[in-house]
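Title: Prediction job returns without error message
Component: structure pipeline
Severity: low
Priority: P3
Assignee: unassigned

Description:
Job completed but the reporter wants confirmation the result is attached to the right record. Sequence as submitted:
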Amino acid sequence: MNVVCLGDCGIDEYETTGDRLPGGITLNFALQARRAFPPDDAITVVSALGTDRDAALVRNALKMSGVECKLTTLKGTTPVQRIALEPDGERRFTGYDAGVLERFRPSPTQRALIEQAGWLVTPHFVQIAGLFDRVLKLARRGALAVDFADFRQHPDFALLERSLAHVDVAFFGLHGDDSEVLAAIEQLARDRDRLLVVTLGGAGSLAYDGSRTHRQAAIPVPAVVDTTGAGDAFAAGFLGRHCHGAPVTESLEAGARHAAAAIQQLGGNRSTNGVEPNSSSW
């Protein structure tokens, strides 16, 4: 299977610690997917980087991961996400600079790769809404998974309803007390017969498949170091199973294991200190 990850690759800048690490939803997902999907599956990143020093950090992270890359270089800055890390490990986004991603248009080679992919995985958030709109218009034979990454802050149901005609699986990061949004998402899943997956932090996760609601508890960890990228790791674990025909319950459990491993380390995509999701071998 060919999985193409199209979207943001950049730098996570931690205001509280001074760390500057490769990050971004697409980069995080791709590196986690390389661990979650079978070895024979191709995981390819399609994105744009700038001409600054940050681009080298991102390229090096991708090179070391075994993920394939089709990257465009544009004059300017690589995207930067600024993060404040709270004492309990919860991350808070404090600012985003999209850099060259605002001007990114997939090349003919990249479009051909997207068209032939078995799955295309991409995020939506307000700072790159234009790129998301362009992605929906691209020719595509395979399935589409979308992470509506800032839906809790910007619950745009009009956008969601328009998008669901193109989307096979959608991910949302909410809190357990977002009852009205959860009810509306569940109703959309029923009305549109779509698989909508919601992560709820310590309250676990759930999936609406159009007819049933499936629930998964969060997996306890010794200590939460950094929740950055937990949703990206969850999506990688989930899709690593779902794309190969696993039941929703098994996919949710795999997502929970990958998220639990991710929050025990600093950064949204690294595997350090021996922390692994302990996935079953393929």
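Comment from assignee: result matches the submitted record. Residues 174 and 200 are 5 Å apart (CA to CA).
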